[in-house]
Design goal:
Number of helices: 5
Structural class: mainly alpha
Radius of gyration: 24 Å
CATH topology of the largest domain: 434 Repressor (Amino-terminal Domain)
Number of strands: 0
CATH class of the largest domain: Mainly Alpha
Largest sheet: none
């Protein structure tokens, strides 16, 4: 029986996706390279090279990162469409949070106006 051939193009695409997701997660959580490197017990330079695709990313490190980010390990291997939807969801959540802040600000303003009207004697 012949050994199966590796589809290098597919393998390269998967590595690229993992690399992009590493960077995306780190930036999403507003972490610097030093913090992630410390968690993985590697140098910041090694982690930086992993993100840039210059160094191999071992599976056990992906498991540690999945645990760290509280995500499922399969996230790293999902296709780009799902990543795109995740980014869109995050952007929408951020927009909702900003609108909530605006609503809270306007509610305070309305309460202040109502309270100031209550302090004035009626004419």
């Amino acid at each position: 029986m012949k050994p199966s051939k590796i589809n290098h193009q597919k393998f390269s695409y998967q590595n690229e996706m993992v690399r992009l997701k590493l960077k995306h997660l780190r930036e999403l959580h507003k972490l610097d390279i030093k913090a992630i490197a410390k968690y993985l017990n590697i140098t910041p330079n090694t982690y930086n090279e992993m993100e840039k695709g210059l160094k191999q990313i071992y599976l056990y490190r992906l498991f540690k990162l999945a645990e760290f980010y509280k995500i499922h390990i399969t996230y790293f291997f999902q296709n780009e469409t799902l990543l795109s939807l995740t980014r869109e969801k995050i952007l929408l959540e951020e927009q909702i949070a900003k609108k909530d802040e605006e609503i809270h600000f306007l509610q305070k303003k309305v309460i202040a106006v109502v309270n100031s009207k209550g302090d004035k004697p009626e004419q």
